[in-house]
């Protein structure tokens, strides 16, 4: 069975360091890339030299070039900004080559969603403006939730930030008419027809976290809610498009993509993520699992399920998704 990926391949789950997989994927193949990297907790990340990746990205064509590589502007901003914070410098050294690959892999009409927490978001925004080009910045989404312990010594921090960048500001795909609508905050102020239809979400999304006792739970600690991924995938991709998530975790992006008729490539280096994803995709047709990286053998998701390794039944979550 061929392991090289093309747009005619089945959807895939790959167990590997993403930086080993990404260079094997072809330019401009994905309409949507959603990334939820591990937050920078001060632990030192695996450093990568960026020189060769940078040279490759500078040569990419599609919808223009990355502004940062036209000249010294990005390097200057990076030098100024990262000098303030050693921990973020390490984190950016980890993220930068992966974001450059993400840019290369985005289709001309494609969109990147980068999910960060409040400690990273502002550094990352400045660097991404310089790297992708400020005109490619589309939105800063705030995902607000209200769960867990609350600090009494400052405002409790209960939001994540999702930065949205497009490959080509003149050509990107976006259709908010297909997005799940939400209840009006003051339904008494609008017509009953509007109340029945619901309102279009803005850039602030109130949504519960994945409940530790709820049906959606897979047991993976950093699992993101289906409702958040549904909005992103509905607005920024069409049926049949390819979606990429190379910090896939429990596979929420792929589960939602499949339920909405999109195809997907997911990558994660954690064996526990693979265990969860094997089970999560057991009932999804045409999904290949690569348990040993892209070069290794291929398994069908349903052949690989081991319910004894899970603390949830395999169909939970996905059942809610498709209902
Ligand atoms: C915050 S979690 C993603 C959670 C996911 N959005 C979900 O809904 O379950 C980040 C993931 O990135 C993975 N990861 C970190 N570094 C990686 C790397 N170099 N290559 C592949 N995966 C990586 C971790 O194993 C972890 O599962």
TrEMBL record:
MF GO annotations: DNA binding; N-methyltransferase activity
InterPro entries given in the database record: DNA_methylase_N4/N6 (IPR002941), DNA_methylase_N6_adenine_CS (IPR002052), N4/N6-MTase_EcoPI_Mod-like (IPR002295), SAM-dependent_MTases_sf (IPR029063)
Sequence ranges assigned to domain DNA methylase N-4/N-6 in this UniProt record: 31-275
tRNA-binding listed as a keyword: no
Keywords: Methyltransferase, S-adenosyl-L-methionine, Transferase
One Pfam family in the UniProt entry: N6_N4_Mtase
GO terms, biological process: methylation
Keyword field contains Transferase: yes
Protein name: Site-specific DNA-methyltransferase
Organism: Cryobacterium frigoriphilum
């Amino acid at each position: 069975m061929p392991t090289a990926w093309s747009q005619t391949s089945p959807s895939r789950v790959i167990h590997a360091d993403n930086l080993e997989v990404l260079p094997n994927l072809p330019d401009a193949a994905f309409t949507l890339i959603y990334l939820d990297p591990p937050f920078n907790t001060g632990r030192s990340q695996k450093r990568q030299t960026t020189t060769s990746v940078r040279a490759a990205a500078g040569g990419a064509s599609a919808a223009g070039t990355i502004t940062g590589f036209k000249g010294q502007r990005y390097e200057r901003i990076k030098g100024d900004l990262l000098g303030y914070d050693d921990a973020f410098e390490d984190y950016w050294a980890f993220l930068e080559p992966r974001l450059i690959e993400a840019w290369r892999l985005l289709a001309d009409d494609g969109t990147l969603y980068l999910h960060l927490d409040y400690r990273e978001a502002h550094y990352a925004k400045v660097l991404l403006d310089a790297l992708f080009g400020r005109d490619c910045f589309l939105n800063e989404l705030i995902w607000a939730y209200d769960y867990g312990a609350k600090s009494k010594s400052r405002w409790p921090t209960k939001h994540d930030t999702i930065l949205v960048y497009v490959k080509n500001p003149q050509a990107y795909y976006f259709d908010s008419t297909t997005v799940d609508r939400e209840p009006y905050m003051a339904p008494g102020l609008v017509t009953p027809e509007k109340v029945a239809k619901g309102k279009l979400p803005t850039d602030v999304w109130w949504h519960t976290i994945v409940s530790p006792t709820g049906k959606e739970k897979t047991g993976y600690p950093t699992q993101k809610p289906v409702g958040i991924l549904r909005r992103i995938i509905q607005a920024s991709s069409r049926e049949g498009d390819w979606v990429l998530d190379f910090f896939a975790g429990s596979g929420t992006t792929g589960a939602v993509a499949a339920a909405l008729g999109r195809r997907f490539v997911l990558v994660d280096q954690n064996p526990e993520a693979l265990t969860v994803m094997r089970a999560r995709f057991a009932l999804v047709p045409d999904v290949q699992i690569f348990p040993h990286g892209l070069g290794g053998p291929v398994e069908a998701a349903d052949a690989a399920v081991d319910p004894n390794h899970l603390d949830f039944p395999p169909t939970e979550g996905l059942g809610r998704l498709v209902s």
